[in-house]
Amino acid sequence: MNAVKRAKAPTPKFFKVLRNIGLALAAIGGTVLAAPVTLPIVVTSLAGYLAVAGGVISAVSQLTTEKADGSQ
Fold first, then answer.
1. Which superkingdom heads the taxonomic lineage of this protein's source (predicted)?
2. Residue 31 above 90 pLDDT?
3. pLDDT bracket for residue 63 (50, 70, 90)
4. How far, in Å, are 26, 64, 66, 67 from residue 70 at the CA level?
5. Domain locations in the chain?
6. Is the Cα torsion angle 28, 33, 39, 40 positive or negative in sign?
7. Structure pTM?
8. Dist CA 32 CA 30 (whole Å)
9. Which run of H or E residues covers position 24?
């Protein structure tokens, strides 16, 4: 199964929830990074890691599919 078919295949409920959490983490990290004020280096570093982790969680969760026979 190639990546396009995998992305279009049904995703189990747990991974849908996990994907949404990952998207929220990436959005929070991106918002903090794009803040128009100067923030401490620790905060911006943490926001960068948060954005990357959220993106990875979302991508992996999106590509997780149910088994071909329909069982989980």
1. Bacteria
2. yes
3. confident
4. 31, 13, 6, 5
5. 3-62
6. positive
7. 0.77
8. 5
9. helix 13-33
